[in-house]
User: Fold Aminotransferase from Halorubrum saccharovorum DSM 1137.
Amino acid sequence: MFDLAQRHDGDLVRLEVGEPDFDTPEHVIDAAASAARDGATHYTSNAGLPECRRAISDTLADEYGVEHDPDEVVVTVGGMEALHLAVLATVSPDEELLVPGPTWPNYETQATLADGRFREVPMPAETGFALDADRVIDAMSDDTAAVVLTTPSNPTGRVFDPDECRAVVEAAADHDAYVIADEVYLGLTYDGPVEGIAAYTDHPDHVLTVGSCSKRYAMTGWRLGWLAGDRHVLDEVVTVRESTTACAPSVSQHAAIAALTRPQEPFQEMYRAFEERRDLVADRIDAIDGLSAPRPEGAFYAFLDPGIDAPAVDVAKHLLREHGVVLAPGDGFGDTAPGRLRLSFANSVDRLEEGFDRIEAGLAEY
Ligand code: PLP
Assistant:
């Protein structure tokens, strides 16, 4: 859809994009620039700058109830590298990585890179793809090395129920497996504060927490994330990353320190904008005949059921070519919900209103 959109002449409302539409706040850019001028242009230690690990450790504890000493934190090249390293560290050849579907596609590639097997466990559409721990636990076997829980979810915008997450962690511990908690959207939840999975389980040593500055702090291009968890696993991770990226970019680590420790007002403004858009998106979905979606509880996605018996790619192409609005077809997010369309509300209120007018007209015509 991205390529089609690039080739399309005329005004398009782009609602397929998975990154904040905000630029990184000035004070973060200034802090990074002055750090670079002061000499932060070299490698750091493999695990990251001590001040950056401390800032991440404090943020995890203060905002999400997840307790890790700074030496149980590795600073990574985005959440993406943290996930890749977590999968490499936990999944051996022919072992299984389980992921509830619908799912962000990169986990499958990461399992393949580890010579492991990827298995999507479909969650029920009737409950809006809420996490059903029993389904995940039934799919576990002695071959299960790790389970990824993505909360808030990309693509559904759901926040998983703590009791369901707890049950999955418990079963993973029984199988001597890990839960990789992909919490890169955790700061963006709209129905009250949400703790990290490691905060409310009896087996935090079986949880590897992945976080990132990308979404919450509008810093996708800085490529700065983290992996936090059991020291023995992190030792393996640091050994692997010595031969891959060596360390996260020094200047981006300084940017992260500023984002995490300095005034939060610019990020709170972004949060409030996302919150307003979430309300608008939920209202517009309710008001359009035949259209439905689980109410987005976090991240900036709504997973639309267009109520049309046709491949989502065809519907998405129709909406793009004839009505100038771009959505991501559900087939991109595993086998669970191929007929759906993911809408990103990382766009202004005016453009979202315009986008929904176009979706309404396009679906009625289809
Ligand atoms: N996890 C999920 C669910 C995502 O949607 C993304 C990015 O879109 C990432 C992880 C990785 O983000 P980053 O590497 O920018 O931190």
Q: What stands out?
A: The chain has a mean pLDDT of 96. The domain at 26-261 is CATH 3.40.640.10 (Aspartate Aminotransferase; domain 2). The radius of gyration is 20 Å. The first strand starts at residue 13 and ends at 14.
